């Protein structure tokens, strides 16, 4: 497992990469929630009341920042998150 602190416009987020069999599992955590790769399940995030967004086709935390959000949890929508924004835009909403 690898962790990486990244400085965004509004603060610091933490990228987490877990090497799996074929592709890595990637999560980037901000103060109020996280962005996740396609390995993780939005239905579960909603059930737990998480603030989450899903991006796909990523293999590094930097990829998450550049990727377009393809799905957001109900709680993330309440904070202004929406599909189509970049991971960087989404994560900046959650810092603080």
State the separation between the terminal residues, measured CA to CA: 25 Å
Low-confidence spans: none
Task: Give the number of DSSP strands.
Answer: 6
Q: What percent of the residues sit in helical stretches (DSSP H or I)?
A: 25-40%
In CATH, the topology is named Hypothetical protein Ta1206 fold
- Specify the number of helices: 4
In short:
Helix content is 27%, strand content 29%. The protein is α+β, with helices and mostly antiparallel strands.
Name the descriptors.
96 residues; alpha+beta; Hypothetical protein Ta1206 fold; 6-stranded mixed beta sheet; 27% helix; 29% strand; globular
Overall description:
The protein is an alpha+beta fold and 96 residues long. The protein has one domain (2-94): Hypothetical protein Ta1206 fold (2-Layer Sandwich), CATH 3.30.1980. The chain has helices spanning 42-48, 61-66, 74-78, 87-94, and strands at 2-8, 11-18, 25-29, 34-36, 52-54, 71-72. A six-stranded mixed sheet has the order 1-2-3-4-5-6, sandwiched between helices. It is globular, with a radius of gyration of 12 Å. The relative contact order is 0.22. The model has no long low-confidence stretch (mean pLDDT 97).
